[in-house]
Design goal:
With about 250 residues, the protein is α/β, with parallel strands linked by helices. It is built from eight helices and eleven strands. The strands form three sheets. Strands 1, 2, 5, 6, 7, 8 and 11 form a seven-stranded parallel beta sheet that branches.
């Protein structure tokens, strides 16, 4: 059976998640504002807590993203949580859940827009939402969570000259390291937009992993710079009905 494209609950993913390293990705954790066009980017704190607690109850352990390079093991199944863009509602609503459940999370920050708004979505006609500021990032780090780079300004890297793409990749790493005093080892391609040239620039910059928006479970054969993820979101009504029929039997 093929896996759903989005992650809402563990049941249809259980066997596949045991076979490798699953990564969940979130954008917003909190109320969806009126006028939001990309509604699927919002997950309530309640659903976020349900999704992470369900994985832990099933025997999966939360791990920092650096552990994704280790070999998967059925006796020590891990899951990984990432957050794209660095929205303030993640600090406000997801961080308390991560603390309570002792889960690890990696948030990918747009280095030159800390404390500002999601200008890239605003230009596309979507609502503006605040991004974490430096104090909130420090609070995130003090809680034992990780940060990574999402470039300086959130461009489509494949549409930039190579020199400009390199600047976005390298300067964001350096800026975050200088500002927060931690090594920035993880990168996330904005919009999931990458090619071999962009990937090689990320490798040359000294990152250890890079996340895409391709769906799938990572295995020993997955490149550390082409990590796959599942976007977590609410199930649609149609999807709920399908799952109800598929998983009607107990167990």
């Amino acid at each position: 059976m093929s896996l759903p494209h989005y992650y809402s609950t563990l049941r249809p993913f259980r066997a596949a998640f045991r076979s490798g390293h699953p990564v969940l990705t979130y954008h917003h954790v909190g109320p969806r504002p009126s006028g939001a066009r990309i509604k699927g980017l919002y997950v309530s704190p309640k659903l976020f807590a349900q999704q992470t607690s369900e994985l832990r109850a099933a025997g999966f352990s939360s791990a920092a993203l650096a552990a994704i390079r280790s070999a998967p093991s059925d006796s020590n199944s891990r899951f990984f949580v990432t957050f794209d863009d660095g929205f303030r509602d993640v600090w406000e609503h997801a961080l308390p859940v991560l603390k309570l459940q002792r889960c690890s999370g990696t948030i990918f920050l747009v280095s030159e827009l800390l404390g500002k708004t999601n200008e890239w979505q605003q230009r596309a006609g979507d609502v503006t939402m605040p991004l974490m500021d430096a104090a909130q990032v420090r609070d995130w780090l003090a809680a034992g969570q990780e940060i990574g780079s999402h470039t300086q300004t959130h461009p489509r890297l494949t549409q930039l000259p190579a020199s400009k793409a390199q600047e976005e990749i390298v300067a964001s790493k350096r800026s975050l390291e200088d500002r927060f005093g931690v090594a920035i080892e993880h990168f996330c391609y904005p919009y999931g937009d990458w090619n071999e040239t962009v990937r090689d620039l990320v490798i040359a910059a000294g990152y250890k992993t890079a996340c895409t928006t391709t769906t799938g479970v990572n295995t020993a054969g997955t490149s550390a710079f082409e990590l796959m993820r599942f976007t977590a979101r609410y199930p649609s009504r149609n999807l709920k009905a399908i799952w109800s029929r598929l998983w009607a039997s107990p167990g």
